[in-house]
Description:
Blueprint: H1 2-39, H2 47-63, E1 88-90, E2 99-101, H3 104-117, E3 123-129, E4 132-139, E5 142-148, E6 155-157, H4 160-163, E7 179-187, H5 190-202, H6 211-220, H7 224-229, E8 233-243, H8 250-259, E9 269-271, H9 274-287, E10 295-302, H10 305-311, E11 321-324, E12 330-342, E13 348-359, E14 362-368, H11 372-378, E15 385-391, E16 395-401, E17 426-428, E18 435-437, H12 446-454, H13 466-474, H14 491-496, H15 503-515, H16 521-527, H17 535-545, H18 548-552, H19 556-559, H20 567-578, H21 580-591, E19 611-615, H22 623-632, E20 636-638, E21 647-650, H23 656-663, E22 668-669, H24 671-679
Parallel strand pairs: 2-11, 19-20, 19-21, 21-22
Antiparallel strand pairs: 1-6, 3-9, 3-10, 4-5, 4-7, 7-8, 10-11, 12-13, 12-15, 13-14, 15-16, 17-18
Amino acid sequence: MSLFCYNKKDFKGEKMMDDLKRYEELVKTIEYHNDRYYNQDDPEISDYEYDMMMKELKKLEKDHPEYVTPSSPTQHVGGSAKREAGVLVRHRVPMLSLQDVFSKEEVQEFVESMQETLVDPVFVVEYKIDGLSMALRYENGLLTTAITRGDGIIQGEDVTVNAKVIKDVKNKLKEPIEYLEVRGEVYMTNEAFDKVNEIQELNNKKTFANPRNCAAGTLRQLDSRITKQRNLSMFIFNIQDIRGKEITSHSQGYEYLKKQGMKVIDNYQICHSFEEVWKAIEMIGESRDQLGYDIDGAVVKIDSYAQRQQLGQTAKVPRWAVAYKYPPEEKETKLLDIELSVGRTGRITPTAIFEPVRLCGTTVSRATLHNQDFIDSLDIRLGDTIIVYKSGEIIPKVKGVNKDKRPAGSVPYQIGNTCPVCGAPTYQEEGTVDIKCSNPTCPSKLVRNVVNFVGRDAMDIKGFGLSYVETLIDQGYIHDVSDIYILKDKRQELLDKKVIGLVKSTDNLLNAIEKSKENDATKVLTALGISNIGKSAAKSLMKKFKTMDQLMNASYEQLIEVNDIGDTSAQILIDYFKDEKNKEIIHKLEHYGLKMEIEDTQSSSILENMTFVVTGTLPTLSRKEAATLIENNGGKVSGSVSKKTTYLLAGENAGSKLTKAQSLNIPVLTEEMFMEMIKS
């Protein structure tokens, strides 16, 4: 018996140690993912995975109350407030999270607890929008301040300038009410999100993972013009504070806000029983794929403000509301085919074509397979029974393969070595998983090539936007980038057919094209869109070789001597200049008057082998002027601070780059110190 008791005690002790270890591991993991989600707008896991970790953490804290500290993820809201978009502003009313529930039973428990505590409670059920929370403050009917959630308790970021260009944000209410603070969710429609990512891809920039990330990043960035271009939307879902008007309930508040011209949550439902609440949740679940924007659940809240006041709140969540999270739906289906498409960047994307299945209210038959590495990791083969689900209840994705149902004789799938559109050889860039078409004139790549060619970092042809590029290609005026410079010869035809527009629009574009001939060979090289050869590499190459002809005839050994050019880039350059089509385009550009050499503007080599980052507002120099001085004295300019940075040249409002430089012990220069350096 004594032995039994000893083992039992020992087992209990081991379990406690295991629980503590798991608890500490969960806290660390959740804090990491909180930072990725709230502060970096770049989550690595799904909401469902995060919710399950939080649920496990709460269970451990319930079993072991001694574990709980004020810094626990269960005890605070959201992320930290940052200074990216402006100053920090104190919250007048906390912007709390909601308690998540995951089952019908938990919803019933909440409703019944409300009915036991309150007299005849009325419930409101509404969409839980997947976006970024923002509070709007109005004084005498005018918008004065817009604030992000930040830490949810103390302070958030001032994003007023960006908020004012969001179409759903009212700058002036119909009624000049003394004071009104509302809270809503800034989000992005699926259509707007697709458009932003299309433009990002065409401009060779990183695409956003999902609409929520894009909306959050857009709201926080510094240029309100970009905010406006990205077409953010906003729903109001709560009155935080109001003076000068008597509002007694959530639903009454919604109707009042509607009259002020505000956009509130669509189709909210008034409910009096658990049966009605659950029916409303099910209706939202059935319709969520038809909304045109992402939701990540349904919110159940008490309607009466007086009853909300009676219930109060914890340190993190109000007691008068819960958020129901829909379970992820998975189904098996047969993989019929893998379709290959070539994007505007030349990237080949495989798409699974499978027997139609119904998921989250819609029938789906296609899902991206991303790349060869993804196919290999799941060992997906034609004829397989695959498991599909909807990410965020919106986007169909392949989760895995039921290998027990694999047909005999199946073979691993390979994308292949030729482009499915033009038949040219494919290649895989070093350090990436993407397989791309090598043909610069591949029909699928032409739009991207032209957009890159006319872009700001390349030939910088003002007014030559995506719509003009697509129109001119579709109507057969552009077959490669050199055709841009013969458009002037077709001016009358362009006017007669109204390809670009009226006389002024057409002449503005043609004049901008002619003006671009003043650019030096560095711009031309950048504009060619050679893989791995961006603005910085182009500068280094032309600095060494001076002329395009010398660069085209450079050996591998000569190329790798250049800063920014490694083995892979050198080989890419050699292969590019070997291609007769590429050489023909360059010769035509030269014939049309583009400069194929650079003027030697370097006045000294005093900054040679030094890399500078310029940030903040300098006393007398613009950033562009500072960059020119650095380059003219043999230095290199980078856009981001890293261990390779030699100096940070900083002015007023230097921001995060200064902080990072200090953390890496990188010397910081004032403009005065920098000017002394290049004079010495």
